[in-house]
Amino acid sequence: MTRTVPPAPTSPRAVSAPTPVQLMDQLAQAAAGYYRNFAVVAAKRGLTLMQGKMLSLLRQPMSMRTLADLLACDASNVTGIVDRLEAHELVRREADPADRRIKMVMLTEEGERTVRLIRAELMSMLSGLEELGEDERRTFQHLLSQVFPAITS
Amino acid sequence: MTRTVPPAPTSPRAVSAPTPVQLMDQLAQAAAGYYRNFAVVAAKRGLTLMQGKMLSLLRQPMSMRTLADLLACDASNVTGIVDRLEAHELVRREADPADRRIKMVMLTEEGERTVRLIRAELMSMLSGLEELGEDERRTFQHLLSQVFPAITS
DNA sequence: TATTGTTATACTCTATAACTATA
DNA sequence: TATAGTTATAGAGTATAACAATA
């Protein structure tokens, strides 16, 4: 299963290295491809991209405020998105007893089920990931975190 | 400038490899980060993400139909987006003499200038790319194309 | 008949501003 | 005063369906 790492497509110096600009364009395509996949998977369950993203974030209950921060959008948007997910019965709001201003959002059982399905299907659309060996995954992570430092998390 | 490739963050087997699922999550973060950068850069010129994307696609004149295909959206959306770019005088429509159904969209001079600025600024936000050596860029490209086969282009 | 582009419609996402209820 | 969440509003992206012009 853990294959030895193939150093490059063919032989190391057989192909000329992509320029940083070319690599930027390929990152753009990769990002677009990722979201296209995500949108398709979400749509199969009648959800939009944002609804699917929010659902995927809710591994633990969290406040509307936290959701706004994680989605990098204004707090006023979260109200509508949660409203629509609630209409689908995938999510519910619960008042925080400690601070009555705060509403915690959490997945319903159907929400949990839906998230699992979405993640599994997305993974199958990124099946190339499964075929990477350990060293390749390590290298990929390293390169991603170098280009997008915030990922370092 | 072309450094020898550092095989891994510290030493090859010092850190455990990310699982495919973890890597999927990091791809999600990378894609989100990419578009967040893009949106910020576009906003500095009074453009939305989609408007910036369309502008970046217009390296050569192309029909509305082609734009719809490349943006992976319905043709009816392209009308509005081009309308708004035209209002900014970044783009213009020109009838195709060979097939009068077709309208070719092309950048104005200000459009060209804006695209160059956007690309340069985006590149500076992805400055990690510039710091990759040749072998790393090759490896990154290879890994990207394995995970997103369409990129192979 | 098929294709290109537009319009009309409805829904979602988006930010801003004003509001409430809490703290 | 400051924060959490909501509402109202306006603009932008989205798909569907119907349409005109052209092929």
Topology, please?
The structure is a homodimer of 153-residue chains.
Chain A: H1 20-43, H2 49-57, E1 62-63, H3 64-71, H4 75-87, E2 91-95, E3 103-107, H5 109-125, H6 134-147
Antiparallel strand pairs in A: 1-3, 2-3
Chain A binds a DNA duplex (23 and 23 nucleotides) through helix 2 and helix 4.
Report on the structure:
2 copies of one chain form a homodimer. The first copy, chain A, is mainly α. Chain A has a domain at 37-127: Arc Repressor Mutant, subunit A (Orthogonal Bundle), CATH 1.10.10. Helix content of chain A is 56%, strand content 8%. Chain A contains 6 helices and 3 strands. Chain A has a 3-stranded antiparallel sheet. The longest helix of chain A has 24 residues, at 20-43. Chain A is elongated. Chains A and B meet through helix 1, helix 5 and helix 6 of A and helix 1, helix 5 and helix 6 of B.
